Amino acid sequence: MATTSIDQSVPTSTNGERTRAAIVGLGLIAIATVGGFLFIEAFGRLQVTFGFGDSFMLTFLLGGFLATLVYAIVALAYLRIRPVKMPYRFRLSTREWAWVVGGVVVMFVAAIAISILSESLGAEASTNMMVAAAVENPMLVYGAMFIGVLVFIGPVEELLFRGVVQGRLREVFGPVLAIVITSIGFAFGHVPNYWLAGTDLLSLGLLLSLVSITAGGVVLGAIFERTANLTVVALVHGLFNATIIGLIAAGIL
After folding, report:
1. Which range among 44-48, 170-174, 192-196 shows the weakest confidence by mean pLDDT?
2. 3-class state of residue 58 by DSSP
3. Which among 97, 132, 133, 217 could disulfide-bond with 57, CB atoms 3.0 to 4.6 Å apart, if both were Cys?
4. What per-residue confidence (pLDDT) applies to 7?
5. Cα 160 from Cα 226, distance rounded (Å)
């Protein structure tokens, strides 16, 4: 089966159309991010109220699941209101599998390069919720997340960011600007993940972490445009994160 790409041309659009698309795209990211954050906060408070203690691990695992579910609800709700060109196929061609492997490799190279830059600048490593929660029970947290990123988190985030947001922005900005805007929004959507873990929002470490996430978003966005298959980027996203989690669990990272 041959791999096709989404139309790469820059569409002709008015300033009003571009403004509306930008507001919609960034608005969807903001709604999903704030909504997810509020669900985590609410769950953390309710678990204490109902006698489940103040376990950060429980807040992360169950509250985080609800937060990801918010992403899915936002994406699907918008698609009900306004369809977006969001192609996907579950059966992948040999060429598409090559994009999966190549995408994971490129994301690793980018992450390593930014990690080296971070060390050379003496930046303190930023802590996310997964690492903070794993202090209580590393095997449970890393095991759950290893599976979760493959079957739930990766596909849901790609549905929202590459499928809905990038797809909507592409209609008026073309692929390049759509990828850039979506990737920056993708990075800032991860800020609560670091904030709730106690990371200083003004730290150089967090800035470089967001740069790394942005770079990963660019890779995912470009692959989506080239393969015209959301399944491919969901696999790249899930496999990359699962490998990182495996390396952390093994003490290599």
Report:
1. 44-48
2. helix
3. 133
4. 61
5. 18
- pLDDT recorded at residue 153: 97
- Name the residue ranges covered by the structural domains of the chain: 15-249
Exposure string of 226-235, with b = 16+ CB inside 10 Å and e = fewer, is bbbbbbbbbb
H-helix or E-strand containing 154? helix 154-158
Location of structure tokens 């009003």: 16
The tokens 């290893």 sit on which residue?
A: 146
For 198, residues 6+ apart whose C-beta sits below 8 A from its C-beta are 127, 132
Spatial contact of 170 and 6, defined as CB atoms under 8 Å apart: yes
The number of angstroms, rounded, from the C-alpha of 118 to the middle of its chain's C-alpha atoms is: 21
Contacts of 250 (CB under 8 A, 6+ apart): none
- Measured in degrees and rounded to the nearest 5, phi and psi for residue 137 equal -155, 85
pLDDT at 130: 96
Joined tokens for residue 191: 């800020």
- Around Cβ 105, how many Cβ atoms within 10 Å? 13
Q: Encoding tokens for residue 246?
A: 């495996």
Whether the Cβ atoms of residue 230 and residue 159 lie closer than 8 Å to each other: yes
